[in-house]
Amino acid sequence: MAFLSQTALFPVLRMLGLASALLAVIFVINNFLIFGVDAPGIINTLRLGDALGVAQPKQGYNIALTLLGIVQTAVAGLALAYVVWHCRKTNDLRSDANWMDSASAYIVRLAFWAVLLVGLADALLSFLRVEGFHTVLFGEVGGAAIALPSQRGFFVHIPLILLAGLIAMKEKSVSFVWLTLLVVVAEFLIVVARFIYGYEQTFMGDLVRFWYAALFLFASAYTLKEDGHVRVDVLYAGLQRRTKSILNIIGTVFFGIPLCWLILMRGMWGKSSLINSPMMNFETSMSGFGMYVKYLMAAFLVVFALSMILQFTAYLLNSMADIEENLSDDDSGEEVVA
Fold first, then answer.
1. How far apart are CA 333 and CA 61, in angstroms?
2. Is the CB of residue 257 less than 8 Å from the CB of residue 20?
3. Closest Cα partner for 300 from 279, 269, 283?
4. Which terminus has fewer CB within 10 Å in the chain: N or C?
5. 98 and 86 inside one domain
6. Alpha-carbon distance 286 to 331, whole Å?
7. Reduced to 3 states, what is the DSSP secondary structure of residue 272?
8. Count of CB atoms situated within 10 Å of the CB of 193
C-alpha cells in the first residue's frame, strides 16, 4: 500500500482525473455546438473520422464554421496543456478536490433553479392552454407560439435556464429539502384538485414527475460528497481509513468515472442518440396538453453524469490526499461513515 504513494501513480491519476473532468465539460459544450449550429467538432477538424470510424459530412464547412472547429480543437488542447502545467506546478490535492467540488455544486445549483423556474412557468402555460386562456392573454400569434414545443423551449425555457445560471452564481445555499417539499406540494395539489374539486389535468402529473426525476438525479453528486450512498459494507466498515481510500480510488477509476463517461458517450455521440434526439427535437409527451419538458428530462442525465464526474474526481483527489497525508479515522475527529 505504501508503494502507491511513493511512485508516479498518484501524479498520473491526478492528471487523468483533472483532464477527464475538463474534457467532460468541453464534450458537453461541443455537443450542443455540433448538433445545434453544425460546428465541425474536433474529430472533423482534425480529419480523424476515417480512423475512428465516424462518418464525416460530405459538404464542406464555411469559413465561420471552420474557424469554430479550430477553436473547439484549440480549447481541448489548451485544457490538456493546462492540466499538465498545473500538475507540474503544484501538488495540492485538497485544493484541486475543492475546485472540482465547487464546479459540481454549481452545476447542481443551476439545475435546481432551472427545474424550479421552468417547472412553474411551463405548468402555468399548460394550464392557460388547457383552459383556453392563452389566446386571450397572448393573442392568436402568441397563443399559437406557446403551443409549439420548439417555441416554448426557445423563448421560455432557455431564458429561464440562463437566469437560473445567474441565480446559482449568487445563491449558494440550495438545499434539496426544498425540491422534496415541492414534489410533496405538487402531489398534494393533485389530490385536493381531484377529490375535492374533481379537476385533473395531464400537466399536473407531469410537474410531479419532472421535479421527482430532478430530485434523484441532481442529488446524487451531493450524496456522494457526503458519502451517503448505500453500499454493501460488510468488510468496508471495519477497514482502516487508508485501506478505505485505496478502495475508493480503485472504485472511482474503474467504475465511477467510466460509468459517467459511458452515459455521455452513449447518450450524446450522435444526433439520434438517446439524449441528443429528444433534446434537439424538443420532444414532448404523447399528451398534447401536458407540460413540454420531456426533452429536459433527457438532459437530466447530462447533469447527472457531468456533476458525478466532477464529484468523483474530487473523491479521487481527496482519497489520494488521505493516503499521502497518512490520515487515520482518529485524525478527523470522527470515524468515516460508509
1. 60
2. yes
3. 279
4. N
5. no
6. 56
7. coil
8. 14
Residues 6+ away with beta carbon under 8 Å from 16: none
Specify the pLDDT at position 30: 94
Question: Residues 28, 302: contact at Cβ < 8 Å?
Answer: yes
Residue 264, amino acid: L
Per-residue confidence (pLDDT) for residue 148, from 0 to 100 = 86
**70/144 same-domain check:** no
CA distance linking residue 33 with residue 35, whole number of Å: 6
- What b-and-e string marks burial along 263-300, b requiring 16 or more CB atoms within 10 Å of the CB? bbeebbeeeebebbbbbbebbbbeeeebbbbbbbbbbb
Which is it for the CA torsion 255, 258, 263, 267, positive or negative?
negative
Closest alpha carbon to 311 in 79, 88, 24, 80: 24
Give whole-number Cα distances, 39 to 29, 33, 74, 222, in Å: 11, 5, 14, 34
State the Cα–Cα distance between residues 157 and 198, nearest whole angstrom.
Answer: 30
How far apart (Å, rounded) are the C-alpha atoms in residues 115 and 215? 10
**Hey, what amino acid is at 5?**
S
Do 170 and 78 fall into the same domain?
no
Question: What residue has cell string 442518440?
Answer: 273
Predicted local confidence at residue 335, as pLDDT: 41
Instruction: Look at residue 337 in the predicted model and tell me its pLDDT.
Output: 35
Q: In the 8-state DSSP scheme, what is residue 61?
A: P
338 in any annotated domain: no
Q: What is the pLDDT of residues 126-135, one digit of tens each?
A: 898 888 887 7
Final residue of a structural domain among 67, 91, 115: 91
The answer to whether 200 touches 165, Cβ cutoff 8 Å, is no
Q: What are the tens digits of pLDDT across the range 255-301?
A: 999 999 999 999 998 888 999 999 988 888 776 678 999 999 999 99
What pLDDT, on the 0 to 100 scale, is given for residue 336?
Answer: 38
Cell of 42: 474536433
